[in-house]
Amino acid sequence: MRQETKGIICLLLSSFFFAMMGAAVKSVPDIPIAQKIFFRNLVGVLITGSILIKNKESFKGSNIKLLSLRSLFGLLGVAANFYAISKLPLSDAALLNRMSPFFLILLSLLFLKENVNRYQLYAMVVALLGASFVIKPQFNYTIIPALIGLSSAIFAAAGYASVRQLRLYSSPYTIVFFFCMFSCLATVPFMLTGHYRAPNSAELVMLLLIGLSATAAQIFMTTGYRFAPASRLAIYGYTNIIFSAILGVILWREYPDLLSMTGGLLIIIGGFINYVAMNNKNLNQSDETTKDE
Q: How confident is the model at residue 247 (pLDDT cuts 50, 70, 90)?
């Protein structure tokens, strides 16, 4: 099996498990968000911690400030996403969260000073138009969950931008472990002050499923990007939208309306434009490197 094919399979599995995580989050509406976040990351702490011990790697890397910043952005993104999942159809929450690659383009241009071609900017405009269809702005309180869902993509993009810098200082498992531990510790004060509910057996199963699904999704995503460049695999992350829509229909009969389907199509088209632009940019850079040699 080709390396890229292995990467594609890993990204598809990652997208499926992220959709499973979202479904599990939505299945326990009476459990506070802080408690869901705690369980989401507790499993990650145990698994990545074990891997770090086995590989004799550092738990804190060599840049605590950047790790803390990445973890803060990640925590805010997860909290916003979980809130959106609880208030919106699962597919809409997934659509808004998948806007993160387009905000990453903007952040890369403004803060990382990376080269962004005009087609990537076109992709961002198309995706933002798609997001507006999903949000369906009515300029009253009903818009709040959708805007919070969109903010989850902004925070996720900021976290990914931090990871791009962190790759110079820490291993992937150290980054994931630090984020999971940071999130667990950050949610403890909230649970101690009332944001905790003793789960029944069914809710406990769902909470554990949140953690297992999130950890499996992260591991498959990390593994996938080892087999092939991110620019060639990122497009397959959008299958999370399809998996989420299917689960939403099966579990809650959440049939996407015409505006949401139109918005989703535009976001996927934007993702495809960005995918093509990134591959062309990498191909041009490779050709330039070959000429220099």
A: very high
What span, in angstroms and rounded, lies between the C-alpha atoms of 126 and 265? Answer: 10
d(CA 163, CA 161): 5
The rounded distance, in Å, linking the Cα atoms of 248 and 251 is 5
pTM, two decimals, is 0.90
Q: Which residue has the tokens 């507790």?
A: 42
The most distant pair of C-alpha atoms in the chain lies apart, rounded to whole Å, by 64
Quick check: 25 and 36 in contact, CB under 8 A? yes
CA angle 209, 135, 271 (to 5 degrees): 75
Residue 194: both structure tokens together: 């009332």
pLDDT tens digits, one per residue of 99-135 = 998 998 888 888 777 778 889 999 999 999 999 999 9
Q: Report which residue type is found at 234.
A: A
According to DSSP, residue 79 is labeled H
Quote the CA–CA distance of 273 and 192 in Å, as a whole number: 46
Contact 24, 213 (CB under 8 A): yes
Burial of 136 (0-12, 13-18, 19+ CB in 10 A): middle
C-alpha span between 241 and 253 (Å, rounded):
16
Distance CA 224, CA 239 (A): 15
Residue 173 CA to residue 24 CA, distance in Å, equals 24
| Contact (CB, 8 A) for 234 and 12 | no
Q: 204: Cβ–Cβ under 8 A, 6 or more apart, which residues?
A: none
What is the DSSP track for 151-174? HHHHHHHHHHHHHHHHTTTS-HHH
CA distance 162 to 168: 11
User: Which residue in the block uniquely carries the two structure tokens 């950050």?
Assistant: 186
Q: Are the C-beta atoms of residues 204 and 24 closer than 8 Å to each other?
A: no
